[in-house]
Amino acid sequence: MLLTNPITRGIVTGIIAPHGITDLVHAKKYQLLPELYGINICSVLATIGLDYNHSDALLNFIFFSTAIFHFRNDMPKLEFANQSITSSMMVLSFFTINPKLFLFYMIFIHVPNHYLMNWELLKENKEKSIMLLSITTLISMIIGDTPIIENHIVEVIAKGLIISHIIYEEAYIFKTLPVKRDY
Questions:
Q1: Is 85 contained in some domain?
Q2: Are 129 and 123 in contact, with CB atoms under 8 Å apart?
Q3: In this predicted model, which residue has the larger pLDDT, 157 or 99?
C-alpha cells in the first residue's frame, strides 16, 4: 500500500480522496441522491463481499478495469491512439515502472481535470462547495493520521467507494453507461 509514507498519505487523503465528493454536489443538483447512495452502498457491499469470499483477483480486476475505463476521460483524443488503450497502458506502467507515478498523474492531471470539469457546478454555490470540500478533506486527513487507515477493511471499503465514484460519474455525468434518466 502506498500510504505507509506520511507525505504520500497526505497527498492521498488531502488531495486525491476528497475530489469524489463532487458527485454529491451533482447528485443534489439533479435530484440523484437515491441513485448516488444506492451505487455507493452496492459498491461497498460488493467489495466487502468479494473480500470476504477471498475473491481478491476478481475485486482487483473490477477495481483496475473501472479505473482504466474512467481514466480514459483524461486521455487526449488522438487519431492514432484509442483513449482506452492509452489509459490501459498508463495504468499498467504505474505498476510496472513505479507506483508513485500514479500519485503524479492524480495530482497533476486527474484531480485538476476533475475540478475543471465540475467548476460550473461547484461555483453555483461557492460557499457550500468550499465547505463540503473542506470538511471532506479534513475528515479524510484525520482518518489518514490514525492507525485505522492501515486496516485491511478500510482499504476494501475505499476500493468500493472509488468504484462507486466511477460508476456514478460514468452513468450520470459522462453518461457512458446505459441509464434511463434525463435531467
A1: yes
A2: yes
A3: 157
**Residue 145 pLDDT greater than 80, yes or no:** yes
CA dist 145 and 166 (Å) reads: 26
Q: Is residue 107 situated within a structural domain?
A: yes
Separation CA 159–CA 62 (nearest Å):
10
- Number of folded domains that form the chain: 1
In whole angstroms, what is the distance from residue 102 CA to residue 93 CA?
A: 9
Q: Does residue 64 sit within a domain?
A: yes
Q: Residue 38 belongs to what domain range?
A: 33-173
* 2: in domain: no
User: Residue 81's beta-bridge partner residues?
Assistant: 78
pLDDT in tens, 100-115: 899 999 999 999 999 9
**The three cell numbers locating residue 138:** 479534513
